[in-house]
Amino acid sequence: MSNINLKTSTSNFKIFNSILLMKYLGEGKGGVVKIPDGIQEVSHFAFQSEECAKITEIVIPASVKEVNTPFSHCSALERITVDAENQHYQTIDGNLYTKDGSILVAYAPASKRIQFCIPEGVKRVEPFAFANCSLEELVIPSSVNNIENAAFGGSIKSIFVDDSNTAYCMRDGLLLTHDHKTVLRYVGDATTEVPFGVTHIATGAFARTDLTCITLPETVQIIGNGAFSNCDRLETIELSQGITSIEQYAFYGCKKLKAITLPASLRSIGRNTFEGCSSLTQIEIPQGITELDGKMFGRCTALTSVTIPNSVANISVFAFADCANVTIKGHKNSYAQTFAKEQGIPFVEI
């Protein structure tokens, strides 16, 4: 454990019922932060504020029984230290594992390594385990059989999977389940074509990559939460028939995406899906979609035309936030026309 004077005052934390750490309230000074003795659970959101960006080490006491992937926003975190008396977790080379070593809970994002080999014996990798990490190369051993969604950060450029691993494999820069049905992560070049047979693009699979162009096969049915979020260079994506669901934040922050054709097979679009797509100029929502939730097109500043079918029965009042030049196209006397009138948005009958 570091010899730096530890910040142990409970005033630095929001704590519920004396045992649940809900949020770190420090002043953003960083350094070493010790979770107070007696805390049994660390919530998902405990270390996700701006005040966490300069923390270099987190010390977990013996009392903690449950840690819920909380360190993804601690971009300067070099080490996670666990009290040796803790019965549920341990530190291995500054990273957080369960006591039996079967689960990699969190990799310290600012570790100085360029390459990291997940230890043999680890069976599961938790969500956001490698979020915001500075790694370039990751090696997955044969023992890993469960990689949770959004486990990887955008800096990883190469992933190698042990040939004897029966759960996962690599193909053309894509980390796939061994049955080739799910894409978990992309670490390839600027353009790619997802292979036929893939049905699911997992949460965050292409997020924050340098992808510029991609084609999805007809077998794809689901585009997961934030699957292409913050792909700053993505200009072209071809969606084929067969896709039934695009989950929330799927294309969030794709600043260069100018056009996208949504297939007729689509039946649901998650909230905030196109928020921040500032180059998107027009889009047609397919028949069968019933709602446009959250800031669906928020900050789509170049958006001029959205065609909305009569199947849509609910549109969030924030759906077109900061879309000053947008015109809604739809059927006369439809919900879209009523919404446009209420929001002061021009409406064109089709």
Brief synopsis:
The protein has 350 residues and is mostly beta strands. The protein has one helix spanning 335-343; strands at residues 13-16, 20-24, 31-34, 41-42, 55-60, 66-67, 79-82, 89-92, 95-98, 103-106, 115-117, 124-125, 137-140, 146-147, 158-161, 168-171, 174-177, 182-186, 191-193, 200-201, 213-215, 222-223, 236-238, 245-246, 268-269, 282-284, 291-292, 305-307, 314-315, 327-330, 347-349.
Using brief descriptors, characterize the structure shown.
350 residues; mainly beta; 7-stranded mixed beta sheet; globular
What does this structure look like?
By secondary structure, the chain is mainly β. The chain contains one helix and 31 strands. The chain has a seven-stranded mixed sheet with strand order 16-17-18-20-22-24-25, with no helix packed on it. It has a five-stranded mixed sheet with strand order 8-9-10-12-14, with no helix packed on it. A four-stranded mixed sheet has the order 1-2-4-6, with no helix packed on it. The longest helix has 9 residues, at 335-343. The radius of gyration is 23 Å and the shape is globular.
Overall helicity: under 10%
So how many helices?
Answer: 1
Structural class: mainly beta
Q: What is the 3D shape?
A: globular
C-alpha termini separation: 68 Å
Strand content: 25-35%
Whole-angstrom Rg = 23 Å
- Give the mean pLDDT: 94
**Largest sheet at a glance?**
7 strands, mixed
Task: Give the strand order, joined by hyphens, for the main sheet.
Answer: 16-17-18-20-22-24-25
Unreliable stretches: 1-8
Number of strands: 31
